[in-house]
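Human: Not sure, check this?
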Amino acid sequence: MPKQFAKFLNPRVLVGELNKMAPLHTPILDLVYADQVNHPFSTIGYEDLVTSIKNIPLVSRGASSYAMPLDGNKLRFIEPQNLTPSHFIGANKLNDMKSFNEGQQKTYILNKVDQLRRTVRASKEALAIQSLTGKIEYGVRNADGAMEKYTVDFGNVQSTTISKKWDANGAKASDVIKDVGAMVAEIKKKSNATKFIGFIDFTTYAAIVDLCNNASTKLPIEVTEDSIVIGAVKLYVTAATYFDYVTKANKPLIAEKKVMVIGVDDGFRFYNCALDSLEADFAGIPFGVREVLKDDPEGEEIIGMARPMPIPNVNAICVSTCLQ
């Protein structure tokens, strides 16, 4: 049986159709992992990782070049796993679709493709969120169908001690400025980051708003509907969550009572690794689709494909407890 949707899923045709679809936005991929790389290999070696960029000494004329230092990270090798969401279209449905004209068939299959790319995007976002803790612990289904835990340990993120919590009696808006500044200073001890953003939940957002409302003088704190800007640091308020297949529970982007500050311009990179696919020519691309004929039951499977891996710089992440 010939493949029913080959003319719509041809890679060259599909790229054009994907570009017409509405852009997908998620906070961590958009704000932290804007640097995305299509990686032509199936693994990532530690020497490929983006290290913190620092100034180097001059070299005397006639002397040898200055060798870029390798990161001392113990992590040597990462083997990203696959994302392969699929839709099965049975022979009974394909039989019914014989009455569809070409435009209707195209709309039907592209709707399926759109669902697959949205699922891949949400899964990439979940991996990106986990990476900001310094460790990915994500559910991976093995060949036998059992769920196991896939782990990549990048090291410990930085932290500071906020002595006067922002919801404590006597807390002032100036304390927030001081504490966020201390988090930036902690990052700067090991990082050359110059652009800082952060994340808070709505409880922390409310506490800061209360402090600003009680302030007797004007402070360099700007409160908007989705963020709080403290000097050069923009703290985004979010209720974003993802489903953790290891713990079988929803987990938030930012834990309760915590504030996270990130130096986003120092070493955060998202890799789209080479796909385990002959049809895709093992290309390193953000998203691919293939069509597979099935025998029992008869039909076709439309499979989305991605091999993502976020690589954080743990030295440029600081997480502190800010509420009681």
User: Anything to note?
Assistant: The longest strand covers residues 288-295. The mean pLDDT is 91. Helices lie at 6-9, 11-20, 27-31, 91-96, 102-131, 173-188, 202-214.
